[in-house]
Specification:
The chain folds into 3 domains: about 35 residues; about 60 residues, Alpha-Beta Complex (Type Iii Antifreeze Protein Isoform Hplc 12), CATH 3.90.1210; about 90 residues, Elongation Factor Tu (Ef-tu), domain 3 (Beta Barrel), CATH 2.40.30. It is about 25% helix and about 25% strand. The chain is built from 4 helices and 9 strands; from the N terminus they run H-E-E-H-E-E-E-E-H-E-E-H-E. The strands form 3 sheets. Strands 5-8-7-6-9 form a 5-stranded antiparallel sheet. Strands 1-2 form a two-stranded antiparallel sheet. The model has no long low-confidence stretch (mean pLDDT about 75).
Length: about 230
């Protein structure tokens, strides 16, 4: 009987290993991240588009206009130093004075008190003569109590009352105890005393008398009602 010989083995047989799956996992993870990246990219594009739209909307309609550099009291003559240039995006319906009209505005008068930083409206300035040929301009320094607390404006019709200590003197000279006047300019109140100067236009014949009374401080101001 023959013996079957088993060939010698070269060594322990290793079990076959599975193929690496690193590449498959990387592709799977990349596919999971791809929708998020796309959403982020779309959001960035949208933000850029909105930003460009806002920039061109804000800057494309800006115009060089006149801005008031500091407060200008009503009735004051406007100087070049009272104005400055500003670039502002404004609504087409707004009526403002462009910087190209700066030379025309200089020398005009403020119809009302102009606040620093405000834009200049055509109706806020005028070339009209505030004092007529048959009038005189008189400045009256008034303390609180000598004029109403209500705001005065250029064009207001007022009555300047003489408050002399000797009222009989006016009667003896047959001179009126008051003068009808028109407000031309209202000055700013002084911080220390609250006193303010009000420029009024009066008939020439009554100008000297009013000026004398105003210099002595013997005046008070009353505002006429509408129509009177």
């Amino acid at each position: 009987m023959s013996r079957t010989e088993v060939p010698p083995q070269a060594g322990p047989v290793q079990a076959p290993t599975a193929a690496p799956v690193v590449g498959v996992q990387s592709k799977w993870q990349a596919r999971r991240r791809r929708p998020g990246m796309l959403a982020l990219a779309v959001a960035c594009i949208a933000v850029c588009a909105v930003g460009n739209w806002w920039y061109w909307t804000e800057n494309g309609q800006r115009q060089p206009i006149i801005e008031v550099a500091h407060d200008i009291p009503a009735g004051s003559v406007i100087k070049d130093s009272d104005l400055r240039e500003a670039s502002v995006a404004i609504d087409p319906s707004m009526k403002v004075i462009g910087i190209q009209q700066r030379d025309e505005v200089v020398g005009m008068r403020a119809v009302s008190t102009l606040q620093a930083g405000s834009l200049l409206h055509p109706k806020e300035v005028t070339r009209k003569t505030l004092v007529k040929a048959d009038e005189q301009l008189v400045g009256i320094a008034l303390k609180p109590g000598q004029l109403p607390d209500s705001m005065l404006r250029p064009g207001d019709q007022v009555q300047v009352v003489f408050t002399s200590d000797d009222p009989g003197a006016d009667a003896a000279k047959a001179e009126p105890g008051s003068v009808q006047a028109r407000v031309v300019r209202v000055g700013e109140a002084r911080e220390s005393t609250g006193e303010r100067v009000v420029d009024v236009a009066v008939p020439k014949a009554q100008g000297p008398r009013l000026a004398a009374q105003a210099a002595a401080g013997d005046v008070a101001l009353a505002v006429n009602g509408a129509g009177g």
